[in-house]
Amino acid sequence: MATGAHKSAGANALAPDTYERVLSAGAVILLTAVAAALFKGRAHWPSVPLNIWVHLVTVLIAVTLTPFMLLRRRGTPSHRQLGWVWAGAMILTALVSLSVRNVNHGGFSIIHFLSVFTLVQVPLIVWSARTHNLKRHRQSVRAMVTGALLIAGFFTFPFDRLLGHWLFS
Question: What is the mean pLDDT of residues 101-124?
């Protein structure tokens, strides 16, 4: 009987909670806004530097995978495979973002701290999953999705940044 109770508790621990549903909805909203901005800005695509395109594509991979990772069953082979893709996209996004310096007269900005944080945090997310520290893994993923994807993503729209300029002009 204890084994059945443990399995049930473990299954509940792996089920998405309200916060993860909110994060998933935020990812879908962000994807919709980015798609609209890209559509509206398509005439300007040829003038966008390659590093911006790589940054945009890699972050879109991570944001697209986020709802699937948060809402589907966890611990499965497909969850692990998609997790590697998500982690790789996040690392590449952070690395490429270090070359994006369109503000501060070509210098680093405050947002670049998030890139460094991502370069440290994503390997810790992978490590916590590989060592079966599911509590740490879940907390770290939620923090990364909240800050590095959603908050940073929504801040690509104000202040006359590229996507915001395309979407609102």
Answer: 80
DSSP line for 99-160? T---SGGGS--THHHHHHHHHHHHHHHHHHHHTT-HHHHHHHHHHHIIIIIIIHHHTTSSTT
- Global pTM reads 0.87
Residue 65 has pLDDT above 80, yes or no: yes
Read off the amino acid at residue 140.
S
* 151: nearest Cα among 111, 123, 102, 119: 111
Coil, strand or helix at 161: coil
CA gap 83, 35 in Å, rounded: 23
Q: Which residue has the tokens 């070509």?
A: 106
Total count of residues recorded for the chain: 169
Q: What is the dihedral of CA 71, 76, 78, 79, to 10 degrees?
A: 50
117-133 mean pLDDT: 96
Distance separating alpha carbons of residues 3 and 14, to the nearest angstrom: 17
Helix, strand, coil percent values for the chain (each to nearest 5): 80, 0, 20
Angle between helices 18-40 and 50-71 (to 10 degrees): 150
